[in-house]
Amino acid sequence: MKITDVIVDTRTFGTKFWLVDVVQVHAYSDGKRTETVTGFKYAVALPERGLEKVGIKIDGAKLLEPPENGYIEVAFTGLEIFIYWSNGDYQLGARAKGITVVNQKS
Fold it and tell me: Which of 40, 64, 66, 68 is the most exposed, fewest CB within 10 Å of its CB?
């Protein structure tokens, strides 16, 4: 079994996700970035993990705008965590099917 075949449990991230930024994800062709946007990466802080940040990719249209100040609490549907090899080391990746606002910060 390869390490990349291991399914990592989403409980690793905790139960709360604070959205802090949203960035475009572009397609690549022949190892070069194209102008084609394939989805968005939602940068979230994990309060149960010392505010460590992770980007969670969702293919398709932008579902939420980044918060104007601070963060907004969000929840993901279809969240998956995976391991991949890049730049000579293992990396942690995450993807989801959807994202919704849980509680708007005042």
Answer: 68
The secondary structure of the chain in percent helix, strand, coil, rounded to multiples of 5, reads 10, 60, 30
Under a CB-based contact definition with an 8 Å cutoff, are residues 72 and 66 in contact? no
Write out the residue range of the structural domain in which residue 66 sits. Answer: 3-103
Integer Cα distance of 64 and 57 in angstroms: 12
Q: Using one digit for the tens of pLDDT, what is the confidence trace for 31-71?
A: 899 999 999 999 999 999 999 999 999 999 999 999 998 99
How many domains does the chain contain in total?
A: 1
Are the beta carbons of 36 and 26 closer than 8 angstroms? yes
Q: Which CATH number covers residue 27?
A: 2.40.50.390
* Nearest Cα to Cα of residue 58 among 73, 74, 72, 78: 78
Cα–Cα dist 4/66, whole Å? 31
Structure tokens at 30: 């022949």
